[in-house]
Amino acid sequence: MYDVLLNSPVSAEAQTLLPTVETMVGVLYFGLFAISFDFVSGYTGYLSFGHAVFYGTGAYTVILVANGKVPLLGPGTPFMLSLLVGGLLAVVLAILVGLVSFRLSGVYFAMITLGFAQVLYVFVRGWDYVANNPRDGPAVGPSHVEGFQIGVPGVDQLSLAIGVLTGDEVSLLGSTLSSTAVSYYMVGLVVLGCYFAMQRIIHSPFGRVLLAIRENEERAVAVGYNTYLYKLGAFAISGFFAAVAGGLFAGFRRSASPENSFYFLVTGDALLASIIGGFGTLAGPLYGRLFDETVREFLSPAGQGGGLLPYLRALLGQETLDAAVVGNETVGGLIDLLLNGHASLYVGIVFVLFVLYVPDGLLGTLRSRVGGTFAEAVPARIWGDDR
Amino acid sequence: MSVLELAGVHTYYGDSHILEGVDLDVSEGEVVALAGRNGVGKTTTLRTILQLTPPREGEITFRGESLVGLETHDVAARGLGWIPEDRRIFGQLTVEENLRAAIPEPGDVAAGLDLAFESFPILEERRGQDAGTLSGGQQQMLAIARGLVGDNDLLLVDEPSEGLAPQIVADVAEALSRASEDVTMLLVEQNLPLALDLADRFYILDKGRVVDEGETAAVSADDERFRRYLSA
């Protein structure tokens, strides 16, 4: 579909508006991270501001395993197993952090989780075991040149490698899927599996208690639920999936740094995605991330692929761009002033507008319009409520 | 035999001394009303029993076992149910999910739902509806039904008729009356005729202390004892 649009008469507009496939891979793995953030924060009401630490744990585990730096796990360890190990490490970490943090609530909980995460962030920045320059973070070393395989470990026919340069290409029905496109589908498969797992948990009796905690924790306690254990369980589950997301990120990018994995602003991006997509909707943060990335790419600086800036330059032509508007300021200069490198500014404005006017987020608002989740509302509208 | 006993209970909110040595007891099968003006500590008494606001001094025993120092969920697990004021239902859960959430494992969910729907048939009609979208009266019915289905030995009922239309109050009173045949209750209620109608005994609370008590059969709502402590 993407290729069809790019080869159509509206290719310039499609390139301007649509994110690239590589961006979409990022939307998937980061969307999973944002979903995991929503799993604990959106469903229990406890804002885990240090959630990036689990994402970083997953990312670093994958790279350190590939580099043979994790005891008992050689460089040949299947990627799927590395994801699992990263997830389990995050579970242990989440329980340790949660044991202390869930003694508190509200802003104190948010601050203490942030505090723990910052401690670990500073620690990995100075831990020279992970990389020669730990401030830049580790990269997959030369001993592991092949791409990380997603599929059934040990069965090559049921596995495909991901990565822009290291991923597999697949010939299908006379056309060839690029390694990035293959990465998109394979990462998407894992993200989908994780999403359905979390959705099942949310719709289980355990999930109902989480909702009860969010709605009225005091009442949930008085019913007889040990909410402390439920919150700890939700935190651990959420940490597991956050680490899987981090592992996918590292598997695709083949490197990670403290800044793009452990840093608190990574959690900030998940919070942004959750608010734009819809807090407490589970799937919403994925759409929130898609929206966020699309806006960023649409407003991306010159020379970074498609977007509004190169589109306008091509559309207006050099003569118009050189034309003066006010004093010595040209049309091209004005466009540069307004658009070049200011994506974060506009995303910030969009964020404020969402908080003010779309407080339920994209998916939350859509659900309230159709009267429930799409899985419930659409069949009810087609067949009526008395199916 | 006393199911619940409070002896010299002192409770504070920060520096504010709310309960100043409350003594009361509730016997098996009784409905005991706790009356008093606003702000004298009636709701705090219930919260203190549940350890939501633990006492600083005094003893609270349930079936001879001290509740002081226990976690609230452990108190609830011993068979104390709470029907709070202001209908603290779980608004984003459906009616049925609210009821199911009130029956912790390994409770009999089917029997609990039957009991709730028998007590309040409207809840069965609305079983799939989000509880937050129910009317105020229906939310109160749901709050009471949740207390009933929890297989509790003692129900702490806080202002069940507050803010309800007279017809709904009658339904609520009937449901509580039926429930009282199976469960012991400590009832906080501003509607004195209703409280006296439901209860076997009463306590009057004033400034954090029990100032009077007696059998409800021997008094009426306009009794001097109530006028002294309950009139504004």
From TrEMBL, chain A:
Membrane topology of this protein: Multi-pass membrane protein
Pfam families: BPD_transp_2
Taxonomic superkingdom: Archaea
Annotated InterPro entries: ABC_transp_permease, LivM-like
Subcellular location: Cell membrane
Residues making up the signal peptide according to the UniProt record: none
Transmembrane segments: 20-40, 52-73, 79-100, 107-124, 181-198, 228-250, 262-287, 337-358
UniProt-recorded Gene Ontology molecular function terms: branched-chain amino acid transmembrane transporter activity
Keywords, comma-separated and alphabetical: Cell membrane, Membrane, Transmembrane, Transmembrane helix
Major subcellular location class: membrane
GO cellular component, one term: plasma membrane
Stored PANTHER family: ABC TRANSPORTER ATP-BINDING PROTEIN, HIGH-AFFINITY BRANCHED-CHAIN AMINO ACID TRANSPORT SYSTEM PERMEASE
Protein name: Branched-chain amino acid ABC transporter permease
From TrEMBL, chain B:
GO molecular function per UniProt: ATP binding; ATP hydrolysis activity; branched-chain amino acid transmembrane transporter activity
Record keywords, A-Z: Amino-acid transport, ATP-binding, Nucleotide-binding, Transport
Gene3D superfamilies: P-loop containing nucleotide triphosphate hydrolases
Entry's Gene Ontology BP terms: L-amino acid transport
Pfam families per the UniProt record, alphabetical: ABC_tran
Stretches assigned to coiled coil: none
TM helices/strands, residue ranges: none
Span of domain ABC transporter: 4-232
Entry-linked InterPro entries: AAA+_ATPase, ABC_transporter-like_ATP-bd, ABC_transporter-like_CS, BCAA_Transport_ATP-bd_LivF, P-loop_NTPase
Similarity comment: family membership: Belongs to the ABC transporter superfamily.
Protein name: ABC transporter ATP-binding protein
Protein species of origin: Haloarcula salina
